Amino acid sequence: MIVSKRILDFYLNSSIHVALSCYALVRITFHVFHIQYDEPMALFVFFGTIVGYNFVKYDALVRVKKNPIGIQLKIIAVLSFISLILVGYYFFHLKRITQIVSVGIFAITALYTLPFFPNRKNARNWAGVKIYIVALCWVGATLVLPLINAEIPFTTDFFIKCIQRFILVFVLILVFEILDLANDDPHLQTVPQTIGVKKTKLLGFLLLVPFWFLEVFITTFNYHDAVINLIMVVMLMLFIAFANPNRSKYYTSFWVESVPIFWWLMVVFL
């Protein structure tokens, strides 16, 4: 049991799980826009997520706080370095415009982590903006990049899917913010800190309504995907309903972040 827990903790702490969620969203993008599987694109996002998330999570721990580096953190550092090499490898297999846009997304991630402006904290600590930056990065990496690389034109369907994807990630982060309410610095002004847990849950429920109904307006609408999306909406509503600051970290870091993976698996097997 202890060994299993350590393996699970490493899997989560090394950002492999969240990277798999991003990979799943890329595969869903391929499915929705009928894009043939693009391995360099999908794996670029997968390994890029590992690098980006580990950079965000451990930069302050190592660079600023200068804490002693434990064995697990050393292994995560090696994994991140290998992932960085693979990101570079797949980067050069992408089209030039995709490379340019991906650099822009990386710049936003760097802005989120590092204090570029004098006398200002990094964007991660700017009051009220964290949730929007993260959601925009996910939309860019899992939806915009695959379409650009496949040279798919930006039609109405694209913009609808961007809104849906933004709402999905926004709602997922709301659950995280509810669980982190007791630990988040009050100056961050997260949604639960600003409007309270009950209103945050209500906001999550309300956002999922347009998320599902927007599906009706895409030109490739089909009942199969609509039903799967409805199942995912119900799943998310349950996660929101049972979220509270006393929940285990695994509630969000494993189960909630598994929602895109479950979505992709339903698309594949149902």
Automatic annotation (TrEMBL):
The keyword Metal-binding does not apply. Keywords: Membrane, Transmembrane, Transmembrane helix. The chain crosses the membrane at residues 12-35, 41-61, 73-91, 97-117, 129-148, 163-182, 202-220, 226-243, 250-269. The keyword Secreted does not apply. This is Prenyltransferase. It comes from Flavobacterium nitrogenifigens.
